[in-house]
Amino acid sequence: MKNIFFIGIGLIGGSFAIDIKKSNSKVVIHGIDTNKNHLKEAQKLGIIQQKAILNDLENADLVIVSIPVDATVKLLPTILDKISDNTLVVDAGSTKDAICKAVEHHPKRRNFLACHPIAGTEKSGPTAAISGLYKGKTNIICEVEKTTFKLQEKALKLFMDIGMRIRYMDPVSHDKHIAYVSHLSHISAFMLGKTVINKEKNERDIFDMAGSGFESTVRLAKSSPAMWTPIFEQNKENVIETLEEYINNLQHFKELMQQDNFSEIFNEMENTNYIKQILNGIN
Amino acid sequence: MKNIFFIGIGLIGGSFAIDIKKSNSKVVIHGIDTNKNHLKEAQKLGIIQQKAILNDLENADLVIVSIPVDATVKLLPTILDKISDNTLVVDAGSTKDAICKAVEHHPKRRNFLACHPIAGTEKSGPTAAISGLYKGKTNIICEVEKTTFKLQEKALKLFMDIGMRIRYMDPVSHDKHIAYVSHLSHISAFMLGKTVINKEKNERDIFDMAGSGFESTVRLAKSSPAMWTPIFEQNKENVIETLEEYINNLQHFKELMQQDNFSEIFNEMENTNYIKQILNGIN
């Protein structure tokens, strides 16, 4: 692989670009972005070597699409139209069903690999791009059987080189599971931030009293609305279901408090402490 | 100060003990704990030099009470009964109103300083105690005017020596504000953990798909139920109020999704991004 094109050169694309260039200094990283400032910053930071446009994609060995998921759904067919027969296209979207559906009948479907690298920070843009973002992180690959063998192999080598773990899943299951472990966390953090901001008009007081616990719980409320709005839209049914369960659990907790049933409050928390084992990967 | 007694030698007390000993090697740290294992571990780890019992408190220059807040309310009058006229007693509880009320008429009220050091981790016990836990962190002091000048001064020096920032507040305001920036975050994390555990029976799948975002949002769900149940009980009214607002905000978000009003979903998130400025302490 020599010519690698990034469509969207923010946190996700930029961090990929940095590590791919590190693991193979001969590649040339080309950047395509509707945000001219991002493109300029990415070039200045050395994340990309060349600015490019969509018509240049015929020269691409690999295209990485890392833009909001609504833009991916719209643009992906055009990208596949423009590439050569041997080009691999991967995406990095947090939803997979709508993206896979958008190209299911495309004549170049076999050039595309649907991916969700589960990594990121609450920051955005090329200045947020960092080396090592993907090391040890999971990359969920969907409908792997719909991609040609040769390009599957190329993609796997790429992800292995930057230290990712691979998991295979169908897009419907992906969207259902990810609603719980990622999309719901974002809403929970955003609404926690909103609740505190609404209540505490004197920000200085919040800041002084907010410990590291609040900071970590609310961290995702710093995330980009431009990235997250289309994710919630595309995964609407699953997200609403998780939200309903979350609200019911909060409501139940509140009722236990109103009933002064603190032994049950204790049990609720003790049962949930089990999350320690889960997060440690221990049974 | 020579003889410092800790009542409760877990994460909070233990971390204080380590840094106090560091900043003044001549002090002798005495530990009192109903948990004999904790006491043994604390001695083994060098966090305390001596095991002690409540009757030894007459020899204390300083007593730091770092036990669950229900135990503090019960034990604090007895502690004040047992100390000498020159002993300073400070607590570290996450609620302040009930604790201040428990000793408001005690003849030794002026020996007590009500404190809430806003620091901690989701871990507990003496093995979780670390040096530097309090550096740069805020210590909220309540009803400072009810403590004698000389002991106020001693306490301030102690907190300054380990790098804490001091803020003064009345206990009612403390409990109201802390419900938003600390107590609510814990419930939000516990119920997020519960929702995901209930839904995803195959824990391996959660672990594989959970990124750093989920991990940070759910982190507080690892916290100790023995510590948090009495906090919620003592701050019941404020916590229920914050929970109601939080649930209403989540409900509103869900309704916007059901109405496909994603431009308003965008606005909700964009407005909440303001948390960045707040957490950076910038206006």
Rg from alpha-carbon coordinates of chain A: 21 Å
Shape of chain A: globular
Please report the number of helical segments of chain A. Answer: 12
Average pLDDT taken over every residue of chain A: 94
Biggest β-sheet strands, sense, barrel of chain A: 8 strands, mixed
What's the number of domains of chain A? 2
String of helices and strands of chain A: EHEHEEHEHEEHEHHHHHHH
| CATH domain class of the largest domain in chain A | Alpha Beta
Helix content of chain A: 40-55%
The CATH topology of the largest domain in chain A turns out to be Rossmann fold
Low-confidence stretches of chain A: none
CATH H level, superfamily name of the largest domain in chain A: NAD(P)-binding Rossmann-like Domain
Strand content of chain A is: 5-15%
For this structure, the quaternary state is homodimer
Pfam family, one (chains A, B): PDH_N
Enzyme class (chains A, B): oxidoreductase
Protein name (chains A, B): Prephenate dehydrogenase
Keywords (chains A, B): Oxidoreductase
